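seq as requested:
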Amino acid sequence: MAPSACGGEAVSWFTSRGYAVALPLRRGYGASDGPYAESSTCPGAAFEQAGLESARDILSAIDYARTLPDVRGSEPVIVVGQSAGGWGSLALASRNPAGVVAVVNMAGGRGGWAQNAPNTNCRPDLLADAAGAYGRTARIPVLSIYTANDSFFAPAIARNIQQNYLAAGGVMEVHNLPAFGSDGHNLFFARGGSLVWGPEVERFLAPFALAQAAPRRT
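struct tokens:
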């Protein structure tokens, strides 16, 4: 694995609106250091713990980004995660870290394509339970986006994640979108994807007034 290119569509959407963007790889992914710490295999399906390990790495990346010369350490932070990164962003919201004002979960989850079959999950009940565990302590506003043809997290699975998170007390705005391309799981980084998710993200972030007048770089 490798980070998205700085000129990629998803990244450019944010930088063109004045955001500084960090693109971290978590432990065990690509060329990043450290052992992989997010194992959540069945039958135990430790989805909650796997997400919290992801959140640890996201927080470390935020702390580092705040030291960079082009970033003011006091600037508010939004976290955008896709797939397992989206699941980690929900876990991060449960920790309510200082300075993080909003989270965007793009097709977040764990355990998709169980036994190499689309639209399946090895333990969807435990995935929903873990979402509820995050929601019990999370107070950061979350935007949650899934599509109708997500091969990892089918609509029923996505709804259970969202409903459990909300029922437990989490703050979440839900947008379940129509089918996108051949697999909506790829919406965030896909060509033309920002035309679909961009308006929803822009409306969600507007109250936080985070964007600056001048474009920023990654």
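The CA atoms of residues 55 and 107 lie 16 Å apart.
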